[in-house]
Design brief:
single chain, about 450 residues, mainly beta, Immunoglobulin-like, 5-stranded antiparallel beta sheet, disordered N terminus
Length: about 450
Amino acid sequence: MRIRPVFLFCFLVSCFLAIPCVAQSGKGQLRVVTSPAGASVTCDGILRDQSPVELVELDPGDHLVQVELSGYLPERRTVSVASGRKAAVEIIMNPIKGLALIKTIPDGGNIQVDGAHRGTAPLLITDLTIGRYRIRGSAGGYQDREVELTIENRTPRCLVLELPSDSSTLTVNSVPPGATISINGLSRGTTPCTLERLQSGETKISLNLADHLPYQDTITLEAGETHNLDVSLKPLPSTLSLVSVPAGAKVFVDDQVRGVTPLSLESIEPGTHTIRMELDGYEPQTRSLEIQRRETRVEEFTMLRLTGHLEVLTDQGGVSLFVDGAEKAVIPDVEKPTEPIQMELAIGNHRVELRKKGYLTVDKRILITQGEVFKVRESLKRHFQPDTVVKLNSGESVIGVAGRRFPDGDLEVETRPGIYRTLKASEIVSVDAYSPPAR
């Protein structure tokens, strides 16, 4: 193909006109491109714009170009720009990568970063760029644990993942120690004992020790937790029979009322117990007993009576002495007694009566105290009240108070106070009780 001279001339003129500014000013141009784009571009210390950017009106020579982008390392380049020419530079930016040391408790856990397996702990990761990551740790016999890790700069980070156990730990103590432990029916040692790797959930536990009652319970174990179980084992019960003389004493065992004697305690725990007996009118008794396991024991208490003394003297013979309604003694039938009647009585309040036919009854309330003598000195007052009617063969009726009966059958009758009449047996037809006529 043949090029015409006129066309060639026009082409050369157009090319010359296209670059008159650069050629005429003597300045150069520089195009800055970064990967990734958007970096801040500084040329010779002056911030220009974000990449990609065209830098114009640059003096010929070397220029220092610096680019910065969040999450990336800053980069610098020295670029030579010729007079009247265009230059270009492309800068590939390197992302900032953090340092992370990841550990697990226990050691050796598997580490995943955003779902990707990265190795086993302790693990140093050096290729994590700025951002957030999900770090998961896992190990056999332990529950997985996942946390968030934020990488902000090159400052090293240390992350420790404590993996919770997927089973439970149980510590068992007993008093006394040495009890056999069974977990869900399987023997697991003797107390004190720490049991690890137990399955979580409801767990049946039993403790057995010779001469003690078995212990059973159901507890709920939580995965990853340590449970403590402290048990006081009760000794096998014993039998204690308590007897008092006299019976009916109130029984206290360790200050608790348990009944009255005779008393049998079928399930008293072995050990030291304080037994106390109380009975009205008797001194309380206390005894400390050491009860052995599976022992059958009988304890007898002889109660000591709490007493004082009563002494009674009257100026009349033939007087009957009553205490609390019961006849206790009769004062000899003499004209004037000189010796008192003495007796022992339980301490406390009592009722004393002196009774004699034809005399007013003496009724007294007395208080007997321990070791003391209560003296009663009384003079009975005469009370004439006919109680007998005697019919004689002469037809006469003699009314009075019957007195002595003589051996020959004669009868003495007090017809008036202090007036006595002796009736011959041969004259007596009948002797009857006399009742005064109603008024």
